[in-house]
Write a structure and sequence with these properties.
Blueprint: H1 2-25, E1 38-40, H2 45-51, E2 59-61, E3 69-75, H3 80-97, E4 106-113, H4 117-126, E5 133-136, H5 140-144, E6 152-158, E7 164-171, H6 177-188
Helix pairs in contact: 3-6
């Protein structure tokens, strides 16, 4: 009886470890060309102008955002770490927008995984998010990005061949807005 229980426990532990390694293995890799996900053109004309997609119909791709660098936050409105990161990302957004050298070159967007439009809008209003947020209610984008945990940050830069390339891929919110700003501007050589 004990042996059977130990075997089952060992098998469960091995399966758990394999699944943990499996999910980590497919995080967006630095230097990799991005799976260029499609997002709906925001109804808000300010967001359309900010992203440079004012004349687009229906959907646009991340690579079509009018910027040299795009920082994508993968979040969930139910994630307490995402909620804590919201004011810091607002501060980063303001720091970029108030800097003549970087305004227009660096853009921020967020993708709410497993969140409906209503939930994303609630998150935006609750935390006064000033940059565009998009919903991913059926986890389609989340799966394309390797089902990363939240919050997760993916920095994308237009490469020499015009295709978006990942320059930053990391979980968590350990950096202050200033440290994140310095990291983005240093790595991308803007």
């Amino acid at each position: 009886m004990k042996t059977k229980y130990l075997h089952k426990t060992a098998v469960l532990i091995i399966i758990f470890l394999l699944l943990s390694f499996y999910s980590e293995a497919f995080e967006p890799a630095i230097g990799r060309k991005v799976l260029d996900v499609q997002l709906p053109v925001p109804e808000n004309s300010q967001y359309q102008s900010y992203l440079g997609v004012k004349n687009f119909q229906g959907n646009f791709r991340v690579s079509e955002i009018d910027a040299t660098v795009v920082l994508v936050e993968i979040f969930s409105m139910y994630c307490p770490h995402c909620q804590k990161a919201a004011p810091e990302l607002n501060a980063l957004f303001k720091q970029i927008e108030q800097n003549d050298k970087y305004r227009g070159k660096i853009k921020l967007i967020g993708i709410g995984v497993g969140n409906s439009d209503f939930e994303v809008e609630y998150f935006k209003k609750t935390y006064n998010i000033e940059f565009p947020l998009f919903s991913d209610p059926d986890f389609t984008i989340h799966k394309m990005l390797g089902e990363v945990r939240t919050p997760y940050f993916i920095g994308v830069k237009q490469s020499q061949d015009g295709k978006p390339e990942i320059f930053m891929s990391e979980a968590g919110r350990e950096k202050t807005p200033e440290e994140l700003f310095d990291l983005i501007t240093t790595i991308t050589d803007l």
